[in-house]
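Quick review question:
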């Protein structure tokens, strides 16, 4: 499928998905949200795709938020529906049976930070900047940011970032646990792709189940999470990947996973 606002490039089972509106710092308007939803849905169904790296076009921004020009004109009811659509995009990333790595190359603000937070983890360039400027616009984050950030770094740091609207550096985001690792700008994508390839070399059913256990277990009691994990563990013993992975170990050879 062709997209007006996205670039989709797949090499050796790894897709780089780039939000491509650099003239407005890749701001998310309704069309971009819709296109991201379609693209991610297609990638989820494509068995040849093992991992996705999500980034922004240009050297200035990952995504500088929802499109303020478009939002400034909408009614209260349309804003509710826009927030719900943005949230369903974030939930789709959580539900995907493959990893999505955010490679944050510049500003990740508002809806852009929400998009990065919905990914499975974030790598950042030294030039990346993070924040929720929404209170300065008279609103709040609406694509799940208050919920995902508070769950990731705890309410106190989330309160400080959201209430102040402050923009923080990549190193501060690293120390707060928002990003996993910070790289020089030209190393960001190669490092994200390297990790994506490492994940893609494993059993894809195992990776999908691990994501399922972590994402869904976070919303359960520990007891229920343990039960859910055990059920997924058991199911994996009905797969070819389990036989191949353990067989290859015992035969002292590299596993050739087929995702079945
Ligand atoms: N929406 C629409 N357009 C945007 C935009 C956004 N979120 N962010 C940047 N742009 C546009 C600018 O209007 C500008 O366009 P023009 O050239 O036509 O004027 C272009 O991108 C370049 O931006 P700047 O000239 O402002 O670049 P800068 O380097 O001076 O500043 C910035 C960079 C600090 C990121 C600044 O652009 C900025 O503050 N952007 C808005 C960030 C923001 O408030 N994001 C939150 C949006 S609300 C939201 O996301 C709600 C939600 O949770 C769903």
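Suggested answer, residue by residue:
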């Amino acid at each position: 499928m062709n997209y007006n606002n996205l670039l989709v490039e797949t090499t050796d089972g790894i897709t780089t998905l780039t939000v491509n509106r650099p003239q407005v710092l890749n701001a998310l308007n309704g069309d971009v949200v819709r296109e991201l939803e379609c693209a991610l849905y297609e990638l989820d169904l494509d068995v040849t795709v093992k991992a996705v790296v999500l980034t922004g076009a240009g050297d200035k921004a990952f995504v500088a938020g929802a499109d303020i020009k478009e939002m400034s004109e909408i009614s209260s009811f349309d804003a509710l529906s826009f927030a719900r659509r943005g949230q369903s995009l974030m939930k789709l990333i959580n539900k995907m049976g493959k990893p999505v790595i955010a490679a944050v190359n510049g500003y990740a603000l508002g809806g852009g930070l929400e998009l990065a937070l919905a990914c499975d983890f974030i790598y950042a360039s030294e030039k990346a900047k993070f924040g929720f400027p929404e209170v300065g616009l008279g609103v709040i984050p609406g694509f799940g940011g208050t919920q995902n950030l508070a769950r990731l770094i705890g309410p106190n740091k989330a309160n400080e970032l959201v209430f102040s609207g402050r923009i923080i550096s990549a190193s501060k985001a690293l120390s707060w646990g928002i990003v996993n690792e910070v790289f020089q700008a030209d190393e960001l994508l190669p490092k994200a792709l390297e990790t994506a390839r490492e994940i893609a070399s494993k059993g894809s059913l195992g990776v999908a189940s691990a994501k399922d256990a972590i994402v869904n277990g976070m919303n359960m009691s520990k007891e229920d999470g343990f039960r859910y994990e055990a059920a997924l563990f058991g199911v994996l013993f009905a797969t070819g990947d389990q036989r191949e992975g353990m067989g290859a170990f015992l035969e002292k050879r590299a596993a050739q996973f087929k995702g079945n």
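Why it works: DSSP finds eleven helices and ten strands in the chain. The first strand starts at residue 6 and ends at 11.
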